[in-house]
Design goal:
Two copies of one chain form a homodimer.
Chain A: H1 5-14, E1 18-23, H2 28-39, E2 43-49, H3 51-60, E3 69-72, H4 76-88, E4 94-97, H5 102-109, E5 123-130, E6 137-140, H6 150-166, E7 173-176, H7 188-201, E8 209-210, H8 216-220, H9 222-227, E9 241-243, H10 247-260, E10 263-270, E11 276-277, H11 285-304
Parallel strand pairs in A: 1-2, 1-4, 2-3, 4-11, 6-9, 7-8, 7-9
Antiparallel strand pairs in A: 5-6, 5-10
Helix pairs in contact in A: 1-11, 2-11, 4-5
C-alpha cells in the first residue's frame, strides 16, 4: 500500500528506467529538476531546444550535459512539437514543459499528428503527502479546469482514479468537497456531489468509492467524522481523492497547504496518452522533481495496460 | 501592532472585564470554554437556560458554578431571547450560542425587539495565527454567506475591516482571492475582485487597502510575490484580510488550515450591535476560548465608538 511520497519513490525505483522529453529545455529551474531526477535514478531526459542556450544555462548551474541526449531545435514551438513527438512515438515516456508559455505547450500536447491527445478530458492532479496526515491525498482540479460541470467532474474523477491506481491505491475513496456534508438545492455544488455519488453506485464511475457532498474535515479526519456523528458514511475521514467544486476553491486550498502546512507534493496533467509534467514557476525544486517521479510511476502503469 | 494571537490576548487583558451572555447554556463544550475564559480573565459569563440541566452538565465536567449568574429559562427559544436581550440592553457585552440549533439562534440574533440586528450584512470572520506566517490573517466568509454577490462582498470586507481595526490592525490590506492574479472575463470572481479594488480606490470601501484578484501565494507570501515578479502590486505577500470567492472555497481552505497546518484561531459573527460567538461543534476547545477573546476585543472597540 502506498501511504507516503517515499513509498511512491520506492515504486519508481522498481520501474524500468523512464525518459522525459523536455520541450524548450533552456530553463535553469527545469534543468536543475531534470538533473536531480537523473541523479536520483527517477528518470533520464532528452533535452529539446536551442542547444547553445541549453549549454549556456547548464553551465550557469554547473550541470554536466555529457550524459544527456540533446536535440537542437531553435524555434520554440518546433522544439515542443519535436519533444512531444518523441513521446508520441514511444521514444520517451513523458513530456515536460520547459521555457515555453503554457498555451503553446498545451497546443503541442493536443496536436493531432504528433501530440498526446485522447478522447478523455485533460485534467490536473496533485499528490500530497501532508505531515500529520495518514496516507496520500490526490487533489483535483486545482489548476486546469475552471468551472467543471457534472460531466467534467465525472471525468476529473475518472482521470484521478487512474492516477491513484497507478500509484498503488487499489480502490480510492473519492470525496466531492463542499462547505457542507448534506445536499442543499440552493448549493449546486452539493447537488453535483450527490449526483456523482449516484453515478458511482450505478457503475458510471468505476474503480473507486464516491461519497459526497463532504466537508473537508469529514473527508480527511476520522476523529472529526466521529465527533460529528458521521460514521454511517462510506467515507469517514479516509478519503484518498478530493474533488474541488471549482478552480478557485482548489487553487486556494492547494496553495494554503503548500505555504502553510508541511507537505511533499508532485503534480501532473493527465487524460493524455502519456504523463505530462506542467510545473509552474511557483513550484519549488522538490515539487518539480517529485512531479517527474509521479510521471514515471504513471508511465509505468500506462505501459502495462 | 497586533501580530500574533498572544498579542490579541494581551489586548484583552488591557480591556475592562467583559461579560458573555450564553443562550441555552446546558452544553458541556460551551461551559468548559466559558469556564476557561473566566479562569484566564478573558470574560465573565451569565448563563441562561434550564438551571437544573446547567447544574447537571456543570457537575459532569467538575465546573464550580458558585461565581456565575444563572437565569433559569427552561424553554430553548425563550432562553435565547432572554440572553440576547441582556446584550441588547447593555447588561452583557457579547452573545454566545449554547445548546440551540443555529437557525433558532440566528433568529434570536435578528429579533427586531430584543436582538442585535443592524442595517449591516451579517458575516463571519475567523482570525488565524499560522505557525511560520508573520502576522494575523482574517478570513471571510468561510461559514455564513454562501454565494456573495459584489455588494455582499463589499459588505463582508467592511465588516472584516472593522474587526481588524478592533484587533489593532490600522489599515488592513485586503486580498480578494482567486485562482489567478489577473482579471479574466471568463472568471466572474476575478471581475468582482477588480471591481472591489476600484470601489476601494473610489472611497466606497474605506479604512483598508484592497488589491485583487490575487492568488493565495501572492497574497500571503512575499517571496512568492517576488518570484512571480508581482512586486508592483499594492499587496506583496502582506495581506491581512483574505476574501473568499464563495463559502466552498472559504470553508475548505479554513478546514485545510485547521486540520493540516499549525494554527491558533478564533471566530466571530459580525454586522451586529455586539459580537456574536457562534462556535461550531467541530471547533476545538481552544478555538472556542479564543473566539470569546476575539469577542471581548471587538466589544471593547464597539463600546468606544
Amino acid at each position: 500500500m502506498t501511504k507516503t511520497f517515499d513509498d511512491l519513490l520506492a515504486k519508481v525505483a522498481a520501474c524500468s528506467t523512464k525518459k522525459v522529453a523536455v520541450a524548450v529545455a533552456q530553463d535553469d529551474a527545469v534543468l536543475e529538476a531534470v538533473a536531480e531526477a537523473k541523479k536520483r535514478g527517477i528518470a533520464e531526459a532528452v533535452l529539446v531546444g536551442d542547444e547553445a542556450k541549453i549549454k549556456e544555462v547548464a553551465a550557469s548551474i554547473n550541470m554536466d550535459l555529457s550524459d544527456y541526449e540533446i536535440i537542437n531545435v531553435e524555434d520554440t514551438y518546433e522544439a515542443a512539437l519535436t519533444a512531444v513527438k518523441l513521446v508520441h512515438d514511444g521514444k520517451a515516456d513523458m513530456y515536460m514543459k520547459g521555457l515555453i508559455d503554457t498555451k503553446s505547450f498545451l497546443k503541442s500536447v493536443l496536436d493531432k499528428e504528433v501530440g498526446l491527445r485522447t478522447d478523455k478530458t485533460l485534467s490536473h492532479v496533485c499528490i500530497f503527502d501532508i505531515e500529520g496526515h495518514d496516507g496520500l491525498l490526490f487533489l483535483s482540479d486545482v489548476a486546469f479546469i475552471p468551472y467543471p460541470d457534472l460531466e467534467a467532474k465525472a471525468n476529473i474523477i475518472r482521470n484521478t482514479v487512474e492516477i491513484a491506481h497507478a500509484c498503488g491505491i487499489e480502490c480510492p475513496k473519492v470525496a466531492p468537497l463542499a462547505a457542507v456534508e448534506v445536499v442543499n438545492p440552493k448549493m449546486p455544488v452539493t447537488v453535483d456531489a450527490a449526483e456523482l455519488t449516484k453515478m458511482n453506485e450505478e457503475g458510471k464511475i468505476t474503480g473507486c468509492i464516491v461519497d459526497g457532498p463532504l466537508s473537508y474535515d469529514l473527508a480527511i479526519d476520522s476523529e472529526a467524522a466521529k465527533h460529528k456523528g458521521a460514521t454511517d458514511r462510506k467515507i469517514v475521514g479516509d478519503a484518498d481523492i478530493l474533488l474541488f467544486p471549482d478552480i478557485h476553491a482548489g487553487n486556494i486550498t492547494y496553495k494554503a497547504l503548500v505555504h502553510n502546512a508541511k507537505v511533499t507534493n508532485g503534480n501532473i496533467l493527465t487524460g493524455t496518452k502519456a504523463p505530462v509534467i506542467l510545473t509552474s514557476r511557483s513550484d519549488d525544486f522538490e515539487t518539480k522533481v517529485n512531479s517527474i517521479a509521479v510521471g514515471a510511476v504513471v508511465a509505468e502503469a500506462m505501459n502495462k495496460q
